[in-house]
Design goal:
Two copies of one chain form a homodimer. With 372 residues, chain A is an alpha/beta fold. Chain A folds into two domains: 120 residues, Aspartate Aminotransferase, domain 1; 234 residues, Aspartate Aminotransferase, domain 2. Helix content of chain A is 44%, strand content 15%. In chain A, a hairpin with a 2-residue loop joins β4 and β5. At the A-B interface, α1, α2, α4, α5 and α9 of A face α1, α2, α4, α5 and α9 of B.
Chain lengths: 372, 372
Amino acid sequence: MAAQISFARGAPSLDIVDVEGLRAAAESAFRSDPAGMTAYGTAVGYRPLRAWIAEQHGVAPEQVLVTNGSMQADAFLFDALVRPGDTVVVERPTYDRTLKSLRQRDADVRMVELEPDGIDVAALERVLIAGTAPKLAHIIPNFQNPAGYTLSAAKREQLLSLARAFGFTIFEDDPYGRLRFEGESLPTMFSLGGDVVVYASSFSKTVCPGIRVGYLVGAEEVIARITKLATSAYISPNMVAQAIVFEFCRSGALERSIETVKDALRERARTLCEALTELLPEARFVAPQGGYFLWVDLPRGTDVTRLFDAAARRGVQFVKGEDFVLEGGESSLRLAYSGVTPDEIEEGVRRLADAYAEVAVMAEPAAGAPAG
Amino acid sequence: MAAQISFARGAPSLDIVDVEGLRAAAESAFRSDPAGMTAYGTAVGYRPLRAWIAEQHGVAPEQVLVTNGSMQADAFLFDALVRPGDTVVVERPTYDRTLKSLRQRDADVRMVELEPDGIDVAALERVLIAGTAPKLAHIIPNFQNPAGYTLSAAKREQLLSLARAFGFTIFEDDPYGRLRFEGESLPTMFSLGGDVVVYASSFSKTVCPGIRVGYLVGAEEVIARITKLATSAYISPNMVAQAIVFEFCRSGALERSIETVKDALRERARTLCEALTELLPEARFVAPQGGYFLWVDLPRGTDVTRLFDAAARRGVQFVKGEDFVLEGGESSLRLAYSGVTPDEIEEGVRRLADAYAEVAVMAEPAAGAPAG
């Protein structure tokens, strides 16, 4: 068993990356379009990949910008739409890098509670009626990072109505959408009402992170503005990587890779849920239907910072809940099951439960008995 | 003969890109380090490539940041060092994208005349003594874009002295340094006095532009600051592309590629100079010793905007001199010979001379005879 077991990083283990498929895609790309992939290209991205993505989303290629990873796409979108002081609604909790990126831009970040079926739309409506006028609402609709929750169909429609009524843009940040391993897929908000939505996704979770290919889909006018920012940032994104992704997609390797990833994630998520239920019954969580993450609430008063240290001493890493909120989150944590095997998961939860027992004993000396 | 002959884009023609070497490097990279190249990595870049670059420059790896192209490196450096209103010295003329990038950041851009042996150091000194206190001086030391000129050894030392005396940083922007096809290489300013220099280069001209791999070398403290900006912009740069470049470098393909590129550029530059001398004797230029570009001054009063249109009607493209300066440049132009074959160069200059004759006749109706 590994000395270190990391539930911290939202990244796949190497065994679910199709390295041989990538090698073959590179080979094929260098043979079929050497001119296109070795030249500068333009900021819109490698045109065949852009056209392929456009077709997947049923839009014109002019509505697509392919970037060096979707984080870069987010940064461009924020640069284009968010001025210092502008209000941006985000989910509570939300992706820590998004929070950081918005705060770096001096945005006025308003967190709205995330429920197991997605952002609390009624609470958002109250905030809007009370006069908050956001420029943007950042929503991770599927298997949210960090919570693993999915926005319901009804709430997707409600959010679109609010965006139209109150004049803000929905930033539908969807890197995990293709990784549903249980239940039925829901339509993207972009497909339901594209005029108020900018959609982002990535090949990091379906091909591999190191390939750094993400993209935006939106109205032509917004995409054109962002393309100008991209041109001045880097002339053009990585043509070699994007040509490899294109070959990976059109050869059918992508669909096979997604099946491999989903099978592994299904097993890992199930193992994690079972291990938590058995070994750490104090953990409250919603079993995820896809994606990489599971959010754990521990009993109020649990000091997750101490749990973090106690787990680290046992070789187990996770991310503290407080990293995903502006305040609070002290008794919550995020477990990523994407990079750990079922065996590691069982052992990791065992150590985590042991760490919890230590922390819980110290927190409640009056209770007299060890917890967990 | 091609209908369109472009002297506009500073990019190599496909015949001098080692596509087969790149394909082999990709194959080799996927076999030798699948884990390293498919995972996220960190913002410093693919570590084996970073270490290779550090060794080339005789520095510690912590002094190197590998980015998605050197344009992105420039942008990070400006973000780290240049605040709105800060003075930045640039050469006149200079790379149009650098000018744009600095103006977007509301820098106070001061152009100092570029002479055939590099920036007019005496003029710069006068400006400094008069009280201008730049944060940064942006210098393209070798085969400058757009002029093709090279900074002399003496001026390199003088610039370093000025930087030390007046407390500014030299940004040594050197994508063409390895492409010297005549004469002796000169030491980089970074190697002569690294403490006041941040050095940038790229594999765009020695491997291919579509691979988008550039880098910065500087003091550890500056590199650490810029690494933070890179992390929040894109988590990590393209690991797949950087691993391919690393294999290309360590296999020896890089050195072979540089020889191929230099041989082609030598012939293209010579052909261009000979054709200009023969067919457009009004053109004043300095024969380049390396790189991609040749700067042409036409007789004062020549309207290069009209020449541009007249050339375009004949299927010839170039970039107008005025794009590389804040004001002036109306009778100058930049010819890139990197993307055109010798045959195309001869035919292109023939058409350009023909366009010049049309414009010159219209400009000087009193002269009575066609020019050129």
